[in-house]
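Lab manual, section 2.4: Encoding a predicted structure.

Procedure: take the sequence of the chain (344 residues), apply the prediction step described in section 2.3, and record the output as structure tokens. A sample record is shown.
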Amino acid sequence: MKKRLLLFLTFITISTVVNAQNEIKFKNDSVKQFIDKTLLVIHDNALNKDKINWQRLRTEVYEKTKEADNIEAILYVYPYLFEKIGDHHGWLSYKNKNYRWNKNSLKPKDEIVKNAVKKYEAVEARLLNKNIGYLRIPGNSDFNGKKMDSIASNIVEEINTINSDKIKGWIIDLRLNTGGNMYPMMAGISDLIGNNEKIGGFITSDNQSDGDWLLKDGNIYVDTNQVLNRQKLKMPVKKQIPIAVLISGYTASSGEMTAIALIGRKNTKVFGEESAGYTTTNQGFEIDKNGGLNLAIGYVTDRNGKIYTNNIKPDFEIIGGDNFENLIEDGKIIKSIKWIRKTY
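Recorded output:
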């Protein structure tokens, strides 16, 4: 009886969402079907679904799309829709084009960092002042997970080029990391992150765990599911060696997740400027054969259980001073080296 009642209530809820405002007539039935499927997916899955006035939202979206002749004519409404549900990490993908709310479009852009994102697209390790390891990890485009092993191996190989027992501390530069696939980035620096421990995780909007990020013998797991293997460093790094993590307003999405995996580690501090604020977890949903939604459905936490609902705030805020051409003159690196020397 309870099960039947639950199914009945679910049917009533969904029917209310789909059939609300039926007095609004659409010029094209396929447009209405596309909009209805969109709103159903958001209603059932969106991170902020319980904060939305569904009757009002449906009326507004219907009014904006009712006169459209085809689906292409309504795509402009999706940035507005994502803004209304408070999701700046999600988007609609339709025929290989993305439509999203650019919440951060009015924020001032650091031109030095912006230009460096385009220029420095490769992982790079350097030795600074003879005993400080520097590792720059940019973003990647491995959204389908086909290059995880090679990305992780590339990071390990770069570390190997400078790693020695003379290194007193590491600087992990994520200022140019605009996102991509977080798992190979974490695996590549797993010897620095820690070992056999929880380093973060996913959490739902009602604070329920949706998967812990675990390190086991240098490999990344989500709960009991192993994500990938990775080769080990030729020489292990010292345990609890000081690590400075550099972030910027361009550190986004999986770049932020990689930084979060380091936060809470002993002798680790974050330097720079607030990150971009794409710390939600996303999931894809098909709308039709040409389009689908990528929705924010949860948040991430660090190893200590802190939930990141917005962005990462550095331990040491340093505005400007970036110098990717001459790292020794970079203001954030100068501060990081000073801190490392006080720590080791």
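Check your result against the sample. Residues 2-86 form one domain.
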